[in-house]
Amino acid sequence: MELLYLWINNFRGIIINQGFKLSSRFNIDYNPLNGSIKIEENNNYIENFFDKNIVDIVAFVGENGSGKSTLLKYFVQECFTPVSNSPDRSSDMIIYKVGETINIYFIDNLKIKIENIKYNKEKYKLKIQESTTNIYWKETGDIYGFDKTKVDNFDQTAFIYFSDVVDLNETSSSFNDLNNICTNYLMASDKEKLINDPLLPFSELTAFKIKELDRQIEYVISKNHENFKLFKLPKLIGIRVSRGDELSINNLLKRLQNIHRKKASRNEKLQRIFFEKINRLVIKHQNLLIGTDFLSIMKYKFRISFIYNLMRAILQILSSFNFAEKIIIEIGRYYIESFDSNGFNIELFSIRTSKGEKKLSSDFNFNLLSDKIYNYISFEDIVFNDIIDYNPNDDTLWFENIYLDVSHKTLPKARDIYNKSYTLTNFLQWFWHDMSSGERAYLTMFSRLNSLNNSINDDFTRKENLIIFLDEAELYFHPQWQKKIISFIINEFPVIFKDKKIQIFITSHSPFILSDLPPSNVLLIRKGNKKDIDYNGEILENKCIVEKKIKVKSFGSNIHELLSVDFFLTNGLFGEFAKEKIERIIFELNEHRIKPIEEKRLSDIKNTIIMVGEPLIKQKLIELYEEKIKEGFYERLEDKIGKLKYQLEKAEKALELKNKTK
């Protein structure tokens, strides 16, 4: 299945009566006035231009607010999802290709005249599909949209949507067959993929952080990046005590000392008692660790952070059962005192908890928190006794952190056990060693894509076609990397998605991406103005408009040439602030006859001209400045001569008066 063309009647009031070319293989034009469709092959089309597995790459390019991302959301949220009581969907059309058959699938309110459809009848077959809107369900009303069960080869096509933009106003909904890996969706769905304790629920953000790092580790240790040459993938992953927990532990008593001086609530009293016990444990461990080695100190810090979070969880759970304070404190003590200088005393803990179980109602499950402890102890053992390879001579790297080899065979197991030892928050911070934000952005995109292949999803792996929607994939990248993203996609995607035919749609406003795409692979989109009118006479101001008049020679073009096209930049090629400064200088230098320029201002103008980088503009400014300086010199000279003449006349009169008095 290869998408060729899309006509949208009305989507969100932003895209109204617009046709979108989705393939470089054909030039397709639909005329809504007479219902004609012209399908012509692109004479410049080259088969396998990008790669034998990449069918096509099409970029939707336009300024902010032009509707690029909205177009992708149409595919993601509504294209293959019939919507009830939505007559705006009653006149949409999608054209796609399966083998040598061109399929035209439209909703019956759209004007289509079959006799006016022109295509190469010798090479292609034509299949017309019509979706009716007269299906009536009492519960929902009329149903509008494309029925995916009627789309040929749909069951052999997988869809992926990626966006790393967090939009708090946007829902994360999508059609069922879409593999949605956008940040918004994952923040809502990752929580469902984790084993979540009913009494200790993860927040969406915590669950997302856990799964995002797991996806990245999975990609780094996989073999699906053999062509990855943009930067070196990290070899070390760091772990440290969460900053917030470390500060909380160090300031426990300071924060709670005022509880003694006021009428404290039940929860505040319990907090103080719990945290005082933790503090005594901290002091006990600190005394035992004086003069010990670095790893013992780090193990202690990890353990205390875990205990602190565990106590918060215990306090929250036990308080919810409304047990007596004395029992809650006693149970908390069982957990705290089971930690000794050697680690965790399982035997002591088992004795204590068995006593606690007798004192508490059967509703409370001790295993819930006991499992957390056992998992943490296992995690601690794997990390410090198996994975870690500490170099005592490298104190700058290891200060306050420990580092693990990503390629170590037991790291995935350590991550899994750590995730199961969570209570309420992430008590340890995991971080990649020596990675920039741009590198992390690349890692994020490709690790999410890779996770789809590695997921237990037979339905995804068996499908032969893949359509990928990338929303502003270059968003966090330096221009040097923006230049490489198309090349990187071409090299990397077939490695991740082996044996699939891939069609890619990417939104962008970067000319760097355009220089890697032929003109037939670029669809220019802009925000409409008052002069834009559709075939119904409706003004399309601030609506999404497909630009047909401007033709961009994109492939292999110089970036400056692309920027010079009015579609990308109007009113010059430099920043608005610099433009305003330069225009002000030109105005002042040209208005010298009306208002002279003060010496201080002339100095500022000179220093500003020195900073101008564009040589022609800079030269013209220098000429204007020198002309002004020259005129200023003569003005000052005339003024000086005038003053001297006045002083001379004054002296002559004084001398004449003196001679008369003699």
Q: How would you sum up this structure in a few lines?
A:
The chain has three domains: 2-232 and 437-451 and 460-564, no CATH class; 242-400, no CATH class; 576-655. Strands 14-13-20-21-5-22-23 form a seven-stranded mixed β-sheet, with helices on both faces. 44% of the residues lie in helices and 18% in strands.
Which tags fit this structure?
single chain, 662 residues, alpha/beta, 3 domains, 21 helices
How is this fold's topology laid out?
Elements: E1 2-11, E2 15-21, E3 26-31, E4 36-41, E5 54-61, H1 68-79, E6 83-84, E7 93-98, E8 101-107, E9 117-118, E10 125-131, E11 136-137, E12 141-144, E13 157-163, E14 178-180, H2 183-193, H3 204-220, E15 236-241, H4 243-250, H5 252-256, H6 266-288, H7 294-320, H8 325-337, E16 339-340, E17 343-344, H9 346-359, H10 366-387, H11 395-398, E18 402-405, H12 411-420, E19 428-432, H13 437-454, H14 458-462, E20 465-471, H15 479-482, H16 485-496, E21 501-508, H17 511-514, E22 522-527, E23 544-546, H18 559-564, H19 576-590, H20 599-611, H21 615-661
Parallel strand pairs: 4-9, 5-21, 5-22, 8-10, 13-14, 13-20, 20-21
Antiparallel strand pairs: 1-2, 1-7, 3-4, 6-12, 7-8, 11-12, 15-18, 15-19, 16-17, 22-23
